[in-house]
UniProtKB/TrEMBL annotation:
Belongs to the inorganic phosphate transporter (PiT) (TC 2.A.20) family. It is a multi-pass membrane protein. InterPro entries: Phos_transporter (IPR001204). It comes from Nocardia panacis. The lineage of its organism: Bacteria, Bacillati, Actinomycetota, Actinomycetes, Mycobacteriales. Keywords: Membrane, Phosphate transport, Transmembrane, Transmembrane helix, Transport. This is Phosphate transporter. Its main location: membrane. The chain crosses the membrane at residues 44-68, 80-99, 111-131, 143-166, 226-245, 314-335, 341-360. One of its GO terms (molecular function) is phosphate transmembrane transporter activity.
Length: 390
């Protein structure tokens, strides 16, 4: 096996590791509200979400094309240099995902990936190596604008939906209303999981496609290989199945106390927006969309919103692109300084070591499916109010 082929294999493994972290980091986007309201038992929820993420990954490759061809100027870098950029960007994205997971912050896995790639590209090629804006393509149009608009639109749609639901059902016995909406939540949460697989698994497909182009295995205009789609689908599904319980707790219990009508409104709004973005090839942040939807349910019901928690989320969103970019740039610098296979192996070893430290730190205050509905100082309101349907 040649050194160049070994580097390619390490890049592909790292990409699938990112896809895995994307899965458990973003499980909350689909299932946090259903778990919080008791519509689904925690472990059944993550199993259902995993299966639908797996299926959703095969529905489209429009977002993958955006990632593969819409960020790095492929005509400006080739071969090993492009492989190192992709690898460094992935490491930056994984480290940011793990750090925000440790603190229970639902930041964007998509932006962590893009930030890592952009940082590594700037370190290697300068600012001109990134496609910032080019008609309908580029970072500004495809990433930044959707990031700004998605949570706002999701909050507005969810707030209107929540208000309408409570207006329509007023005067009806609330226990019957809650029971009916918990069944509805199962369907809407499933749709969000399907949408998440359609949108997020493709981002890793696009990165692996970049690596294969860099190695010369594929051309820029080739179709996405089926094995890439299958590998990414399995990686995100496995990560989803393990359940990102820390972030599920933040979204389900930390932002707004959610009843089942709110949960259905939030999930329906999220699914509609995520599927629409996937159709148009926009690599939308499913995390920001889901968070905006949950916030909207609180506004629509005039419920208490924990603005301090929301503020920490917004800060994390704002820091994701630049800090993941810094991590990607540092990883590129280390790999470039040491050179060749040695540089890649050293950065990979650093990734494994830091990931292990973060995991061990998380065990000090573990969050699992058994205590996911226990917000510190907040009780278990929704979960204890009624038994799970499934």
């Amino acid at each position: 096996m040649t050194g160049e082929l070994l580097v390619l294999l390490i890049v592909i493994i790292t990409a699938l590791a990112f896809d895995f972290t994307n899965g458990f980091h973003d499980t909350a986007n689909a299932m946090a509200t259903s778990i919080a309201t008791g519509a689904l038992r925690p472990k059944i929820a993550v199993a259902l979400s995993a299966a639908l993420n797996l299926l959703g990954a095969f529905l489209s490759v429009a977002v993958a094309a955006t990632v593969a061809k819409g960020i790095v100027r492929l005509d400006a870098v080739h071969g090993h240099d492009l492989l190192i950029i992709v690898f460094a960007g992935l490491v930056g994205g994984i480290l940011w995902n793990l750090l925000t997971w440790l603190f229970g912050l639902p930041s964007s896995s998509s932006h962590a990936l893009f930030g890592g790639l952009i940082g590594a590209t700037i370190a290697a090629l300068g600012f001109n190596g990134v496609i910032w804006a080019s008609g309908a393509d580029g970072v500004v149009t495809k990433i930044i604008l959707p990031a700004v608009l998605a949570p706002v639109v999701a909050a507005a749609v969810s707030a209107i939906g929540t208000w309408a639901v409570y207006r329509i059902t007023r005067g009806i016995d609330q226990q019957r209303v809650s029971a009916g909406f918990r069944w509805g939540q199962i369907g809407s949460a499933a749709l969000v999981s399907l949408a998440h697989g359609t949108n997020d698994a493709q981002k890793t497909m696009g990165v692996i496609f970049l690596a294969l182009v860099a190695h010369g295995t594929l051309g820029q205009n080739d179709d996405m290989p089926l094995w890439v789609m299958a590998a990414c689908a399995c990686a995100i599904a496995l990560g989803t199945y393990l359940g990102g319980w820390r972030i599920i707790r933040t979204l389900g219990k930390g932002l707004v106390e959610i009843d089942s009508p709110q949960g259905l409104a939030a999930e329906s709004a999220s699914a509609a927006i995520i599927l629409s973005s996937a159709h148009f090839g926009l690599p939308l942040s499913t995390t920001q969309t889901a968070t905006g939807s949950i916030l909207g349910t609180g506004l629509g019901k005039h419920a208490e919103v924990r603005w301090g928690v929301m503020g920490r989320m917004v800060v994390a969103w704002g820091l994701t692109l630049p800090l993941a970019g810094v991590a990607g740039a540092i990883c590129w610098a280390i790999a470039h300084l040491l050179g060749g296979l040695l540089g890649v192996l050293v950065v990979f070893a650093l990734l494994v070591a830091l990931s292990t430290l973060i995991y061990l730190r998380s065990r000090r205050d573990a969050v699992t499916g058994d205590n996911v509905n226990e917000w510190p100082g907040g009780g278990t309101q929704a979960a204890n109010a009624a038994p799970a349907q499934i």
